[in-house]
Amino acid sequence: MMHFLIRRLLVLSLRIGSIAAVLLVLIEIGFGWLREDSIHVWNLAFSAPVSPELSPSGESAVTWVWRAFGNSVPTLLIAMLGIWMIGYGWGILGSRFRSLGASFLLRAPFGIAACFPGFWLVILISLYSYFVWERPGFADEIRVEQGPDLVVWWNASVVALPLILVGSSRLLRAVSSVLTDRAAETHRGAFFLLGASSEEVFYQQVCRPVRHQLAELLDRVFPLTLGGLVIVETAFHQGGIGFAFVKGIREGSTSVVFLSAFLIACLGAILALVRECLVYWLERRES
Amino acid sequence: MMQNRKPSKIKKGYSLVRARLWQARFAIVLAMAYGLLFSWLFSGTYEEMQGRPIDFSALPESPVWEAPDADHRFGTTADGTDLYVLSRAAMAQGSAFAVVVSTLGVLLGFLISLLFVFDGGSRFGAHVRDRFTLLRSVSRFLRLLPAMMVFCIVLGGSGAGPVLLFLSFILVVGLYSSETIAEWFEKEDRRPDRISGEVLGLHRPRIIKSRSIPVISRRLIGLVATLLPVVILAEMALAFLGFTGGSLSCGVLVASGTSSLLEAPWVTIYPGLFAGVIVLLFSVLGRVTNFLLRGGTTPDFL
Predict the structure, then answer these.
(1) Residue A140: which domain range?
(2) Do B297 and A177 touch (CB under 8 A)?
(3) B76 phi and psi, to 5 degrees?
(4) Is-contact A118 A166, C-beta < 8 A?
(5) Which value, to the nearest 10 degrees, does the dihedral of the CA atoms of residues B286, B290, B295, B301 take?
(6) How far apart are CA A93 and CA A259, in angstroms?
(7) CA-CA-CA-CA torsion sign (A77, A83, A84, A86)
(8) What pLDDT was estimated at residue A164?
(9) Mutate which of B74, B87, B143, B144 to disrupt the A interface (most A C-beta within 10 Å)?
């Protein structure tokens, strides 16, 4: 296990290095080659204060992006936990009762909701809460000065909701697909002839052997969630990492763009490492 | 009375056509559904907005909004343009963009995957399996950076021209779909008849050309159909962020409405709802097309 872990950590560091290189190339293409007033990557200044449009207090790019990342953590936590709970839970449940059409019925509401633009859903929720509950509307409209800041979690859940809908829809389909393929193998029928109940066959002969395949899906929707975070945070005016990324692009601050994109991609790389370790552990247990 | 047992050519031809039509009944129904949807989106009167410069960025000093009523089902924008007409035109543009981008992107993905599939140097595809592994690793690495961020950096940083928008989408769709297409080739490689062909000494490129490519090229249509709604949504999201150069899109309409949410909420609500329904229709049609062409799972590329 230790040998495997060291090897994967080396791969992780290689990945992170490659991500940085790809990002530098992309920023040079976007801001350097194709832009009229060229900004080049060799002018990146992480410790210099960002423009007053981004931060009036004159924080450095690193501090500002790190603070924005902290604001996004509750949203990402809620979104990913929601996606995993619904995606795996309902996916397995749907496959268990697939003969009753449960797989389709459980997937349909998420599939339909995923067709609507996430930024539009966020605006609708904000409008509803503004008109019906009178507060809070958008994230930048209320500040809690005393007591526990529950508004942070409310704001995070508003932003997370469209991400959960889209992510769950994809994960549900992937989980169902893995389980349905396994269940369709003809020799599973022999267990019924041996007197096993459908529940035993499903959980022991279908779910158990594909545990590592299900674990492989752990980070499948993470890039989608992070991409969505950029849009819905901007729609909701929530000062998270996605909002910082878009604001950095609008203000032409390449250091903010690089740092926020790098941080987001690193999160993906770390989750990929967790997935690889989990799959390895499950495969070793099986063997 | 004796009957001539040999049917006439006309009768024979008629039965053949009928049989072919029956075989292609699902394809015909789907083509009709797509045709109806596209013709509805592109039909209608756009005189109200044609030739008029559309500036969504600023509100006029004295807006002439009209709430939804019998004349204007979705209400009007601040300059009095009918929102239903505008939304339909926006979705027509968005869907045309998605068709071109998905088709060219999937073709690019197909060409990329072919680079990994053809390998005359080994038998039983041993080297090819290594190549598939390489492609999978590259694809997994690419997924670490969300495609939406790549679009934002390139389009937002440069100021987004239409050519760049097309090229970046085609490139991203191509790169992300190549893994799925290569996976199809890999599955085809594992089929018993392909393995028997190789054992009997048939050249791998010949097997791929005569057996795998016809099967996979049919599935590409399903892949394009599945990617349509995804591309429409991605384009709308970028337009909402203002990274598509201000071209007409439901994302731009929704974004323009956010500055007057309390005074005229319909400017935001109806274009988004309309876009969602159209994307849902494309999504259902795409899934059905993909299912009928046995496309299997499709890539999650955003």
Answers:
(1) 2-286
(2) yes
(3) -125, 165
(4) yes
(5) 10
(6) 40
(7) positive
(8) 93
(9) B144
Distance, in Å, from the CA atom of B8 to the CA atom of B17, rounded to the nearest integer, reads 14
Which of B133, B141, B152 to probe by mutation at the A interface, max A CB count within 10 Å? B152
Minimal CA–CA distance to B156: which of B275, B246, B232? B246
Instruction: Fill in the DSSP letter of residue B82.
Output: B
Peptide bond into B63 cis (omega under 30): no
Q: Chain B closest CA to A194's CA: distance in Å?
A: 30
Rounded to an integer, what distance in angstroms lies between the CA atom of residue A140 and that of residue B258? 14
The tokens for B89 are 């035109």
Phi, psi of B65 (to 5 degrees): -65, 150
Q: Answer for the pair A259, A61: CB distance below 8 angstroms, yes or no.
A: yes
Torsion angle of the four alpha carbons B229, B247, B146, A106, in this order, in degrees rounded to the nearest 10: -30
Who wins on pLDDT, A91 or B73? A91
**φ and ψ of A60, to 5 deg:** -75, 165
Inter-chain touch A224–B233, beta carbons under 8 Å: no
Which residues have CB under 8 Å from B237's CB, separation 6+? Answer: A117, A118, A119, A231, B148, B251
Closest CA to A23 of A248, A193, A181, A190: A248
Torsion angle in degrees (nearest 10) through CA of B176, B177, B179, B185: -170
The ipTM is 0.88
Q: What pLDDT was estimated at residue B287?
A: 87
Largest distance between two CA atoms of chain B: 91
DSSP code of residue A60: B
Helix (H, G, I), strand (E, B) or coil at B161: coil
Of B53, B81, B56, nearest to B66 by C-alpha is B81
CA dihedral B153, B154, B157, B160 (to 10 degrees): -130
Chain B residues within an 8 Å CB radius of A170: 300
**Distance between first and last Cα of chain B:** 71
CB contact under 8 A, A117 and B297: no
pLDDT tens per residue across span A195-230:
777 788 888 778 888 888 889 888 888 988 998 999
What six digits make up the tokens of B218?
Answer: 């049919």
Spell out the alpha helix ranges (H) of A97-149: 102-114, 118-131
Residue B47, classified by CB atoms within 10 Å of its CB into exposed (0-12), middle (13-18) or buried (19+), is: exposed
Q: What is the rounded average pLDDT of the residues A73-91?
A: 93
DSSP single-letter state for residue B8: P
The dihedral region occupied by B59, where left means phi > 0, alpha psi between -120 and 50, and beta the remainder, is beta
Q: Which residues contact B213 (CB under 8 A, 6 or more apart)?
A: none
Domains of chain A: total: 1
B90 alpha-carbon distance from chain centroid: 16
